[in-house]
Each structure stands twice: as structure tokens, then as C-alpha cells.
Design a protein that fits this description.
Residues 5-230 form the ABC transporter domain. GO terms for molecular function: ATP binding. The chain has 291 residues and is an alpha/beta fold. The protein folds into two domains: 3-217, Rossmann fold (3-Layer(aba) Sandwich), CATH 3.40.50.300; 221-281. The chain has eleven helices and 13 strands. The protein has a six-stranded mixed β-sheet. A four-stranded antiparallel β-sheet has the order 11-12-10-13, sandwiched between helices. It has a three-stranded antiparallel β-sheet with strand order 2-1-4, with no helix packed on it. The longest helix has 14 residues, at 162-175. The structure holds adenosine-5'-triphosphate. Adenosine-5'-triphosphate is lined by residues 14-15, 17, 36, 38-44.
Length: 291
């Protein structure tokens, strides 16, 4: 399968934070949700994919091309949305549009005006005075108006009201009806992903924990609760993280079926949500004690 994005053995360090030897492949034609705690490295990786930051070592390829040889061709095919004030000076939306449209061969002015209408954006108002949500909508209108094959979005929904968030999810599902399109989006709002994402990539302290199909995650991961007597060297190996208390333990497994066979009705075994997977895998290996 062709990959829309490939990172190979990428290193990047800033003072105390480091990404070491990270490799990641994002499938073409699907939506991948990129999740991880604050400071895990999501924006850093997204910036490297967009060539806004260069890795210290390793390689970033988009549609099989690298920026050194094919920067213009790659950028032409990407639409990006940042939760950031990076775009807006003293310009109106129309003035900004003129600058951005000039960068893309496939710029579609009709489509841009369609999105501005749909998002109720004022064309002649200084963008500096836009609310956070309006800025995000403007960034979306720009990203969606040049027929990009790959949409990369860094927390696109964080400043949006719940109504528009739902509309955006609907809109993105519409984009994905074209099987050639790919979306890679980071978010802290897990419910956005349940109806949209095909794959989930979880990052923790600069390391990829997994990159998997959402339905596999739903089938494999579970939270197990039981008495301390159930834990020993043999059973502990099925857990990614164990939290012990005076009353017993709670643990995360990525092997639902085996654990169910092993413990049967002796333990409570429930499918894990993405929030729970993030929470329990925080701090990594076995024996994160709690009380
Ligand atoms: N330009 C920079 N200089 C120094 N440190 C940086 C720089 N950019 C990011 N970092 C550090 O890298 C780490 C990862 O930051 P990053 O913004 O990639 O995380 P994130 O997963 O996107 O977090 P959040 O969910 O809070 O947006 C943080 O510790 C951050 O302080």
C-alpha cells in the first residue's frame, strides 16, 4: 500500500525533549488520528511533515517524495490547518486569500467562496479581529480550497463550538468519499475520532506507542479490574500497565481475548476507550502504583 507520509529513523531534540529514531507510516486514502498527552511531540512531528521544522537526522517523505527534491510538488498537494495565529497580520480574509491562492496551481476560488459562505466568514473584516473559532474556520477554508490530496490538521477542533465541530466532522467525512484523499489530524477530543478515524497513532514522550486500525484497538484493548491474588509473573505479562491499590488492581491489556480466557469471571474486563488507553499507558510499563 502506498503511504501518504513516511518518517524514517527521525531524530529531533530541543533541550529536555527528544524524538529518537522515530519511524511512522501513514496510509494513503484513510483518516489517521494522532493522539498523545500535552508535550508528547505531536506538533513537532506535524511541523517536520510540513517541512516547517527539519529533523536533526532521518528522513521525511510525503507521497514518496522528499522536500529537498520536490518541495513545490509536495506543498501543492497538502492542505494544512494549525491551531495557531500564524497567518494573520492586518489583512482581511480577501487580501489573505490573494496571497495564498497565488501559491497553488489548483486554487479554486468558487470553492473558497462556498466555504466562506458555509462558515459565515466576513470577507472584508481584518482577520486580526476574528475570534479563535473564526480563525480556525478561515484556515480550514484555505486548506480545503486547492484540492489537496492530504489534509494535515493540528488540533483543528479545539477552538470550535460543538455544533461546528460536528459540522466539520461531517465535512471531513464528505472529503473522504474521494478515496484518493488522506487526512492526518491531531486532537485531544477523542469523540471526534470515533466517527471519523480509520487509524490511530498514539505518541508518548516522543515515542510512537502504536499506530493501528481503530477497530483493532477496539477489539484488542481492555481495562481489567480484579483482586491482587490474580497477579503473578505469568499473568502480569499480559498487561501494558498495572495500577495497584489496597483493593486490588486495574490494568491495561492489548490482549483482550487471552485475558478473558485467563481470568474468566474472576476479573471485570471492559473494552478500553482511547482516553483510558492514553491514561493507563502514561508512565509506560508495569507497576504504576496508585492509591
Ligand atoms: N521550538 C521549540 N524549542 C524548544 N522546545 C520546543 C520547541 N517546540 C516544541 N518544544 C518542546 O517539545 C515538546 C513537544 O512539544 P509539542 O508541541 O510537539 O507537543 P504536543 O504533543 O503537540 O503538545 P500539545 O498537545 O500540548 O499541543 C514540548 O516539551 C515542547 O516544550
Amino acid at each position: 500500500m502506498e503511504h501518504a507520509i513516511e518518517l524514517q529513523n527521525v531524530h529531533k531534540s530541543f533541550g529536555g525533549f527528544g524524538i529518537k529514531d522515530l519511524s511512522l507510516q501513514i496510509k494513503k486514502g484513510f483518516v489517521t488520528g494522532f493522539i498523545g498527552a500535552n508535550g508528547a511531540g505531536k506538533s513537532t512531528i506535524i511541523k517536520m511533515i510540513l517541512n516547517l521544522l527539519q529533523p536533526d537526522a532521518g528522513e521525511v517523505r510525503v507521497f514518496g517524495m522528499n522536500y529537498k527534491e520536490s518541495e513545490k510538488m509536495i506543498k501543492e498537494r497538502i492542505g494544512f490547518v494549525f491551531n495557531d495565529d500564524m497567518l494573520y497580520g492586518e489583512l482581511t480574509l480577501l487580501e489573505m486569500k490573494k496571497l495564498i491562492a497565488a501559491c497553488y496551481r489548483k486554487w479554486d476560488d468558487t470553492l473558497f467562496h462556498h466555504y466562506c459562505d458555509r462558515f459565515e466568514l466576513p470577507l472584508r473584516q481584518n482577520m486580526k479581529s476574528f475570534s479563535d473559532g473564526m480563525k480556525m474556520k478561515a484556515a480550514l477554508a484555505f486548506a480545503l480550497s486547492h484540492h489537496a490530496d492530504l489534509l494535515i490538521m493540528d488540533e483543528p477542533t479545539s477552538s470550535l463550538d460543538p455544533i461546528f465541530r460536528r459540522e466539520l466532522m461531517e465535512l471531513l467525512r464528505g472529503v473522504m468519499l474521494d478515496e484518493e484523499k488522506t487526512i492526518f489530524l491531531s486532537t485531544h477530543i477523542m469523540s471526534d475520532l470515533s466517527s471519523l478515524a480509520d487509524y490511530i497513532t498514539l505518541i508518548q514522550e516522543g515515542e510512537i506507542v502504536f499506530s493501528k486500525a481503530l477497530n483493532e484497538i477496539e477489539e484488542e484493548y481492555a481495562i481489567v479490574r480484579g483482586g491482587a491474588e490474580l497477579l503473578d509473573k505469568d499473568t502480569e505479562q499480559y498487561f501494558l500497565s498495572i495500577r495497584r491499590s489496597d483493593n486490588g488492581f486495574e490494568a491495561l491489556t492489548a490482549d483482550y481475548q487471552t485475558v478473558e480466557k485467563l481470568f474468566g469471571s474472576e476479573a471485570i474486563i471492559e473494552r478500553a476507550s482511547l482516553e483510558e488507553i492514553m491514561y493507563y499507558s502514561r508512565g509506560g510499563k508495569v507497576d504504576a502504583a496508585f492509591n
